[in-house]
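fold description:
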Amino acid sequence: MELSERMLLLEKELKPYKKMMGEASDIIREQDVSNYPILVIHQDEVELGIPIYEREKNGGKWSINASSLEEFVSKQLISEDRIEEFKKTYKDPELFICTFIISELGTQFIFMSRIYNYN
């Protein structure tokens, strides 16, 4: 399976979690935690963010943690000299959910559309 096919499959697998991820992103911004929420999607244990969905307890293939640009910088996942570049790349959180996916494909930021089309 090619990388593009794997990414499409991954987005399909994450579709049921979109609404929850969007709500978590909104709460992070509304409570002034960060203007740059990041949802960490993973299958193994990670020490990043606050768990909002644990696959072991709830079933499913993915766990989701709520994090932020600030935490990524403090844990040196994004270096301080790349903050402005990240902010410029960050898409409108009203339209997109910023995810950091840790999978067999490696790690990658993906901005997922917030459109909740369940067809």
Notes: The chain has one domain: 3-113. Residues 3 and 105 are 8 Å apart (CA to CA).
